[in-house]
Write a structure and sequence with these properties.
Length: 173
């Protein structure tokens, strides 16, 4: 349990520090809605009062999102606690998603302007990728890794079940 906790503290602490610092920098250095480029990366200060990709939420959305974020962090903590100590992909992915959720939660709690986003929009050639932040990157990478971890576990469980069923069938022959 000690190694799991150390991993979580390092990842969550690092992501939260980077997220808070870069959002503070964006608020100080960028003008709202004006895009500049730094090392080929477009930077545009924006405030997202909705959810992912700027999708709107109802009038009381801020409080709904705060409650939902707290619920998600509690669920992630439960999954983290139940994860095997050696499952570093699962533990890392849960830590990344939790760090990102807390990073965006900090913005939602501290003011009603919304989450500070500043990286993008990125032109993919067929669409503009929405403006995002460090917390969003942690959530995205963590969610993909968590999905792969759960998928891998599902495959291992199915293989073990098939192996057990096959063994039972042979014993009955």
């Amino acid at each position: 349990m000690k190694q799991k906790l150390i991993l979580a503290l390092i990842l969550v602490g690092s992501i939260l520090t980077l997220d808070v610092y870069t959002k503070r920098w964006a608020l100080d250095a960028l003008a709202h809605g004006v895009t500049i480029e730094a090392a080929g990366v477009p930077l545009t200060l924006a405030f997202n009062t909705g959810i992912a990709f700027g999708l709107d939420v109802p009038e009381a959305g801020r409080w709904i999102l705060i409650a939902a974020s707290i619920f998600v962090v509690v669920m992630l903590a439960g999954m983290f606690r139940q994860s095997k100590p050696g499952d570093w992909i699962r533990l890392s992915s849960l830590s990344l998603v939790a760090a990102g959720a807390v990073g965006n939660l900090i913005d939602r709690v501290r003011w009603d302007r919304g989450v500070v986003d500043f990286i993008g929009p990125i032109d993919l050639g067929f669409m503009l990728w929405p403006i995002f932040n460090v917390a969003d990157m942690a959530i995205t990478v963590g969610a993909i890794a968590l999905g792969l971890s759960l998928w891998r576990e599902g495959g291992e469980t199915a293989a073990a079940t098939a192996s057990s069923a096959g063994g039972l069938g042979k014993a009955a022959d």
